Amino acid sequence: MVRQADIANGDFNGYLLLTDGLQLDAGMKAAGKTVAVSAIAAAVGNLADDPDAKLTAPQLANDPAADGYDGYVLVSQSQDKDAGKTRFTQYAVFLVGDRAEVAMRVAYGSRDKLDPLLAGMDALTYSMEFRNAGAPPPARLAAALPTDLAAITPKPKVNELAGHSGDGSSASTSGAGVVCRNEPQLIQRQSPVAASQGRFAMESFYGAKQVCRKNGKIVSVR
Fold first, then answer.
1. CA-CA distance, 154 to 168, in Å (whole number)?
2. In the chain, pLDDT over 90 holds for what percent of residues?
3. Inter-residue long-range contacts of 74-81, CB under 8 Å, 24+ positions, other chains counted
């Protein structure tokens, strides 16, 4: 799960990841929960590829008696050979019955790049419910993931789109020297998921807005 702003800019410096989950074997159970959580984070974070990788100790982040499962958070820093950058990862590891479910936010190059992903990580983890913990199946299933490559291919950057009118269907002229066209613009709003939980968190995404320019300068956005 990549932020829409990053897709529009062709900038993949951070993303959210939900794993398929892991079955807890007898060895993991015998080792203890924090040891098992550290081992799971090392596995899903590919930390074995970097002998100098750093991993913090797991911290319990919920009330297991009330929730019916244990939720831990921890952070790692490692070198990603494929990307050629330092990789910063936060893990949310949930021990539910005989399974471990893991959500991650991953950033490259700087720890600061984790911050813009926090609202999305909160929305993801707060929306998770587990069948093994007694949660009922959802009333409405999520839509299938797209398989059309054109639909999920990153779009050109905004400043590249601004210089092209395409087939002209999205461009119009209003006033002397003023040209208006629909362009992707960054939209920020209060997260509806966070609002439903009584929390405040902003979310960012790209949406179409009509941008009017005169002599190359923006005069209005609607």
1. 22
2. 23
3. 74/37, 74/38, 74/41, 76/41, 76/42, 76/45, 76/47, 77/53, 77/111, 78/45, 78/46, 78/47, 78/49, 78/50, 78/52, 78/53, 78/54, 79/50, 79/52, 79/53, 80/46, 80/108, 81/49, 81/50
Question: What is the rounded distance in angstroms from the CA atom of residue 85 to the CA atom of residue 78?
Answer: 9
Asked if residues 171 and 180 have their Cβ atoms less than 8 Å apart, the reply is yes
Tell me how far CA of residue 11 lies from CA of 2, 4, 16, 65, in angstroms.
10, 10, 14, 41
Give the pTM.
0.60
Positive or negative: CA dihedral 78, 94, 96, 124: negative
pLDDT digits (tens, 9 = 90+) for 3-12: 666 666 666 6
Stretch 125-143: mean pLDDT: 82
Between 92 and 134, the higher pLDDT residue: 92
Q: Is the per-residue pLDDT at 168 higher than 50? A: no
**111 residue type, one letter:** R
Tokens representing 36 are: 């098992």
Q: Which residues pair with 173 in a beta bridge?
A: 179
